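Retro notes
What went well: the complex prediction finally ran end to end.
Inputs used:
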Amino acid sequence: MIVRKLPGTPAVGEHAEPMDLTATLPFPGEAEAATRGRPENRTTLARLPKYLAAQISAIVAEASARESGLPPEEVERRLVEMGFVEGAMVRIEHAAGLAGDPIAVRLDGRRLVALRRREARCILVEPVGGTAE
Amino acid sequence: MSDPNVRLRVALVGNPNSGKTALFNALTGSRQRVANYAGVTVDRKLGMLRTPQGRELELVDLPGTYSLRGRSPDEIVARDVILGRAEHETPPDLLVCVADATSLRLVLRLALELRRTGRPVILALNMMDIARRRGVDIDVEALSAELGVPVIPTVSLRRAGTRALLEALDHGAARIEANPRHTRTAATWREPDAAGLRALDNAVQAIISRTVRHPGRPAGFTQWLDRLVLHPVLGPVILLAVLFFVFQAVFSWAEVPMDLIAAGFSWLQHAITMVVPAGPLRSLLVNGLISGVGAVVVFLPQILILFLFIILLEDFGYMARAAFLMDRTMGRVGLHGRAFIPLLSSFACAIPGIMAARVIGNPRDRLLTTLIAPLMTCSARIPVYTLLIAAFVPRRSVWGMINLQGLVMFGLYLAGIVSAVGVAWLLKRTLLRGSLEPLLLELPDYKLPGLRNLYHGLVLRAGFFLRRAGTIIASAMIVLWFLSSYPAPPAGATGPAIDYSFAGMLGHVLQPALAPVGFNWEIVVALVTGLAAREVMVAALGTVYAVDAATGATHGLAATLAAQWTLPVALALLAWYVFAPQCMSTLAVTQRETNSWRWPAVMAGYMLVLAYVAAFGTFHLARLVTGV
């Protein structure tokens, strides 16, 4: 028997795409970046709740490079240059407008640096408990 | 002692906002001059200073930079000069790395990079007074030992605060002079990879932890103010209020000085009329040179007031916040948050705006900003708008309280912004396709703007503007005067003299092309003269209609135009002027900044098309509605 296929509607079980498990996450690539580290509470700076203090555990620039049009190495260097390095303490203090993007991050309790969430999700962080202040 | 004719050259290097320029001003006083680096329009500031031991040193103020990696034109210039790679530039003998003592981390990395170039380095710890007040405690001697370079605290707002630095320069210069092998050569430096940067950063961290004691928390005032200024809802409201205030000030404060300048020029015209006998020379001076240059110089107050606010807000630390607040909105049409300041400046004049676009690192993002900058309503359009609105828009109120003339003016501003948004959107999807460069922006602590810095900034802008008026515009006016005065009308001619001139002929030749948008030959002639500067058109219309516009009889001109033109023609001309593609200076500066002929051509082309389409649409729509 020949199953006639309507154009554009794949038969079930034949051509259907596997369900995209990361689709519900705000940014593509963020999921893999966030789960790369071991500790359970590890997340990215892009998803860190406002005012929650955290420590940077790694920079994974692949997560943003695709959209910024820069090589991951370059994104990484810029973040490092701005002071986003492993071990630095971060805390989101401001989020612009209703979209909450870009964010202003207090680095090591002193400098205030603005960046977009797109780049912030290259920065893996571990919350260190409690909203400082 | 070395050859006294060869002065040692010292370069000031430092992060943006580190007080480097203030230090430069304090060290050199008025003994400085500004030029451009070869091939790029990055300010090249060179000054002279005398050390306590009587040495004359050349001081170069390099553009602010975070590293030697060279990511924007400014940073590339800084790097190339330091490394001795820049053409036609003497490599510096001594580097003074200017550090904001309140924020050492980034600049110490730069200092370590500089030390690796092999050139002698002095670290000037600027803003030490502010750092101390904030409880930042720096062990200067330990820092000097860690870095292996002299470390000198400075307070650049006071000349006395630079005394120790001058002595250190003496010391450094003496050592260079004593070294017979000292030559001015290119330095070696290799761009670090991410691992190298981390290693550098670790080294800096280690140095800081050993030499600097920080207070627990950042400046309280900054945090308090940021809670308001960066608030998701309040922040944009405050930004709008600030912008509204600035524009109000630009227009209302400038009124009196502008009237004075206009009066001064018309007095000058009268004086020359008295002294110089009638003839071509008087005509050239009075009608060509003075009325043309005067028409431009009259905008100096507006430009200075706008820059007064831009410099103050920048120094205070607000501009970075404005970029932060606007980034999302501007990103929607593909503009970088940093494009905010250049576009704001373009409301005074597109030229400083286009030059300010240099702060944008990515060439594509910078180009996009450059291309749409002339769509911001510059102050040169204002006289044309004012004239036409006065002539054709009735002075009455709509909806009870809103002034109709003001509403039309507002609509014209809005039309410029809306079309800029549209053009940016389109360019980003066609010629300038590509993704948005990351935004990584330091939001510095608020600080009181330095008056000396403000003064120098304003003098610089005024000088640039006046030089432009004195050279480009003045020469264009002479050419236009010639074109509109010769050949002279035959004896017994009845029409205005310009009708018989080259400009008149040109107007008649071009007029058929512009007839579909309703422009008569008089308008075409005036548009041609507007090539020199947009506002010159007002004076040109006066000439064409034989009304003395320069001597303040604008009302007379408005009445003449109201009698001569129909409403659709006037509206079409207003629509044309929203785009006004004919400003040569803008195209020239675009050519210089992009170093290509392609982009000014693109700019002129798209603006011409938009102007034509807008005028055409407006003309025919208005004819339909009014039935004229």
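What we learned: The longest helix of chain B spans residues 451-485.
What to try next: split runs per interface for comparison.
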